[in-house]
């Protein structure tokens, strides 16, 4: 701002400088005998023109500076709103989680009380018929804690204050389906409650504990992932099949969560189940050949890799082949976790290089951050390359693309801005000066 003021002061002194030059010119002309061919009016017109041009350019720069400041303020406001929305969602999630914990504690307390009463009444006393001479034998049958929780009186849960009644009832229904090993029923339950998918995702790992064989239940739920009646090119048009595939992936992710909280993986997944999972993976593998890798958002590739990761059968597959599948899922939020679960962390520099060479700089930047490879793959040059490519094709896209595609391009650009504002603030200055 100080530079602007000093420049404006210099502009104001231009007229006085011209007047001084006029006096000097007149004095020079008085000392010569022959009149100069170059008249003062011509010089004055020249300098007045320069003065006018400089002032016009100065005002244009002022307008551009104000416009840039306005855009910067709007961008900052949008980022603040997004941050506020994220905080609000986190608070809502924490509150919902607390309500579920309260419901679970209440259910366990009631179940223990009922179990104590049933155990005291169910003691079988066997005697020889003579009172006082027989030795009583006590027989107690141990109860599964998950089964007990499933048999809690729903009316008690309904009438309890401060508890999410509907969510508690849904959880008990989910536990019952897991106890019965009803894979089809679980699919239907999730499909009917997709509005509460975030809550269900948290409940499934707990409900799977009630299943006699959780790994087999999840493996059975994969049946129908590839519907023979639906050709590959028509899958995106079939909403039901897409929903089924997403549910399959979610159940496999929940199995991984269950395993991470278990003391022994072998207690959950037997070698027999692993062999069956390997057979399913071998059946799915050839179907990945026809998938387009350019979008990086393949459900089929995600399911294949999640199957290998969840059932712990990565050692049965070649690491190079698995790493070549990562670009198929590079845009999915679970990509980094999948790579770690599959033991592909050391392969990530090669994967990121493939993404860079194929022009998918944003995916490359995300994985570089996830695996601390930003020194090897600096985000600033990658983003500059992305902007260069965007500029080359922006005119063609604006003419030939649909309004939806144009809006998506704008959102992608804004996501880049937010990404570097939050993750790499020092690079944002270099990018804005680019």
Automatic annotation (TrEMBL):
This is FRIGIDA-like protein. The keyword Phosphoprotein does not apply. Keywords: Coiled coil, Developmental protein, Differentiation, Flowering. GO terms for biological process: cell differentiation; flower development. The keyword Cytoplasm does not apply. Belongs to the Frigida family. Residues 51-114 form a coiled coil. It comes from Lupinus angustifolius (Narrow-leaved blue lupine). It holds the Pfam family Frigida.
């Amino acid at each position: 701002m100080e530079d602007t003021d000093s420049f404006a002061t210099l502009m104001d002194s231009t007229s006085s400088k011209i007047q001084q030059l006029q006096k000097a010119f007149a004095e020079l002309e008085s000392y010569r005998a022959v009149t100069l061919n170059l008249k003062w009016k011509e010089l004055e017109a020249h300098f007045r023109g320069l003065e006018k041009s400089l002032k016009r350019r100065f005002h244009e720069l002022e307008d551009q500076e104000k416009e840039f400041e306005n855009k910067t303020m709007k961008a900052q406001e949008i980022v603040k709103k997004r941050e506020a929305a994220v905080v609000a969602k986190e608070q809502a999630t924490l509150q919902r989680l607390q309500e579920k914990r309260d419901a679970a504690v209440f259910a366990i307390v009631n179940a223990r009380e009922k179990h104590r009463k049933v155990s005291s009444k169910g003691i079988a006393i066997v005697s020889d018929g003579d009172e006082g001479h027989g030795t009583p034998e006590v027989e107690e049958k141990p109860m599964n804690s998950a089964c007990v929780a499933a048999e809690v009186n729903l009316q008690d849960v309904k009438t309890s204050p401060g508890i999410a009644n509907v969510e508690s009832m849904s959880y008990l229904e989910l536990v019952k389906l897991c106890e019965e090993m009803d894979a089809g029923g679980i699919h239907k339950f999730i499909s009917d409650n997709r509005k509460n998918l975030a809550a269900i995702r948290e409940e499934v790992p707990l409900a799977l504990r009630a299943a006699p064989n959780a790994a087999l239940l999840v493996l059975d739920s994969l049946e129908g992932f590839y519907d023979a009646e639906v050709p590959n090119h028509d899958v995106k048009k079939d909403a039901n099949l897409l929903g089924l595939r997403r549910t399959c992936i979610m159940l496999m992710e929940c199995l991984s969560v269950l395993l991470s909280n278990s003391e022994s993986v072998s207690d959950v997944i037997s070698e027999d189940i692993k062999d069956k999972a390997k057979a399913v993976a071998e059946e799915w593998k050839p179907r990945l050949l026809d998938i387009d890798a350019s979008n990086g958002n393949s459900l089929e590739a995600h399911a294949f890799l999640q199957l290998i990761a969840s059932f712990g059968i990565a050692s049965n597959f070649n690491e190079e082949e698995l790493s070549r599948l990562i670009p198929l899922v590079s845009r999915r939020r679970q990509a980094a976790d999948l790579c770690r679960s599959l033991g592909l962390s050391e392969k990530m520099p090669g994967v990121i290089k493939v993404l860079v060479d194929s022009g998918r700089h944003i995916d490359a930047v995300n994985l570089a951050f996830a695996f601390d490879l930003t020194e090897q793959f600096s985000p600033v040059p990658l983003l500059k390359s992305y902007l260069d490519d965007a500029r080359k094709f922006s005119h063609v896209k604006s003419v030939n693309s649909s309004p939806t595609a144009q809006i998506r391009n704008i959102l992608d650009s804004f996501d880049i801005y937010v990404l570097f504002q939050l993750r790499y603030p020092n690079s944002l200055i270099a990018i804005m000066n680019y």
